Amino acid sequence: MTTIEREMIEGFDLTNPPDGFAEDPFPFYHALLEYAPVCAQPDGSFVLTRYADLDRIYRDTTLFISDKKRAFLPKFGGDAPLYEHHTTSLVFNEPPLHTRVRKIMVGALNARAIANMEPGLIDTIDMLLDQMDGREQVDLIEDFASKIPIQIIGNMFNMPMADREPLRDWSLAILGALEPTLTAEQLAKGNQSVIDFKAYLKDLADDRRRHPGDPETDVLTRLIESEEGELSETELLQNCIFILNAGHETTTNLIGNALAALHDFPGQKYALKSNPEIIKTGVDEFLRFLSPNQLGNRETTADIEIDGHKIPAGSNLHLVIGAANRDPAQFDDPDELKLMRKPNRHLAFAGGPHLCVGFQLARMEGRIAVNRFLKKYPNYQLTGNAELGGRLRFRGYAKLPAKLN
Ligand code: HEM
Q: Which family does this protein fall into (predicted)?
């Protein structure tokens, strides 16, 4: 182990990460993978980085659960709106709530429903590309990547166009509250966003009960129709918030990260321009290489041992998806972007019973957005003053300024 590697992992603490980690966690991930794949944390939790460990943990819902009622109590406080939200959404629940909501979502996002969204997605993307025409400089997040999922997810809920603007800020504040550490200001903003979002959705749901939509295409109507006897009003509203958020920042980051990665790998950019078909495998390589969701969590239900570490029941495990997706034991040349990589069984959408419900939709958004962007602006260049979002859990850019021609 080199001195630098030792410094990187000695006393590694996700709640107080070392300098440089938020900007470029990948050298730290490699040091952890090599020398501390199960890294005990000062607060009693564990950071896990190996692909094989994460893959196994995601599949095993007996030993590793998603329920966060215990873990979030000290973080948010039991009465906080953020506590109600995050402990009611399907992603942080076990059956029966998880199964009920997931069934509705899987039904709403079937292959036919996704294919039906394609023409509208292409129109949205082409309109955004046309709006950037002739501009000296654009921000690929503000002007492009962040605008796409808002429309897709807004359409899924048949939400009036004029109502969509606050969605991104609410989503950033609510999902941002899942970061390992939070300031009082971030906590207050997250709580207020849950209150505002829930109030907005209550009105929308009341209106939809009076004027039901087509359950084939309208997820809110689908959820409301399943409400009786299945979901309480709180469960309905909090899961709507989760679904609206889940499909949102992650997909923005997939598109933004892909355009940044292509800039850093001009050979791959050239290959994609010459043969747009390789986006089919390419989209998964973007997801592997710069995973929008870098961290997941599970709680142990029994005393276990991994890599010689005794892990007691009730421990919080930080599953570092971003590291597992760069694990050399699973991927050749993990730090190279190879758009034709195959096989590419990355964990960007996690795995097991909580595998991302929107993964096919997200892939479609990524494929179409990147290829149409590249077709219209093949010579785009980043102008060097990009700003990362600064989060550990969600990796993406806050600003990605570029020249288009
Ligand atoms: C690139 C985009 C996306 C990424 C990287 C992503 C990633 C993930 C991950 C890692 C999980 C599992 C979390 C866990 O169990 O710890 C998840 C769950 C989920 N995602 Fe996505 N997601 C994306 C897009 C979407 C979209 C577009 C939608 C819907 C419109 C969506 C809906 C969901 C839902 C409903 C769950 C919860 C599934 C469950 O708990 O059973 N996601 N996502």
A: Belongs to the cytochrome P450 family.
Cα separation, 238 vs 69, whole angstroms? 15
> DSSP class of residue 401?
E
**Are the beta carbons of 237 and 205 closer than 8 angstroms?**
yes
Tokens for 243? 């679904």
**Cα–Cα distance between 279 and 371 in angstroms, integer?**
7
Q: Is the CB of 347 under 6 A from ligand 1?
A: no
Distance CA 313, CA 319 (A): 16
Ligand 1 midpoint to CA 403 (Å): 32
Q: What angle do CA 249, 63, 72 make, to 5 degrees?
A: 45
- The predicted pLDDT at position 175 comes to 93
Ligand 1: centre distance to CA 239 (Å): 13
Q: Where are the alpha helices (DSSP H) in 46-91?
A: 51-59, 72-76, 81-88
**Is pLDDT above 90 for 1?**
no
Residue 229 banded pLDDT, cuts 50, 70, 90: low
| Cα–Cα dist 241/211, whole Å | 20
Looking at residues 385-402, what average pLDDT do you find?
A: 96
54 in contact with ligand 1, CB cutoff 6 A: no
Q: Is this prediction's pTM over 0.85?
A: yes
Per-residue pLDDT tens for 141-176?
999 999 999 999 999 999 999 999 999 999 999 999
User: Which atom of ligand 1 is found nearest the CA of 92?
Assistant: 40
Nearest to 354 by CA among 176, 174, 102, 50: 102
Residue found by looking up tokens 């893959």 in the block? 55
Please tell me the distance from the alpha carbon of residue 55 to that of residue 53, in angstroms, as a whole number.
6
The chain-wide mean pLDDT, for the chain, equals: 95
Q: What is the mean pLDDT of residues 341-356?
A: 98
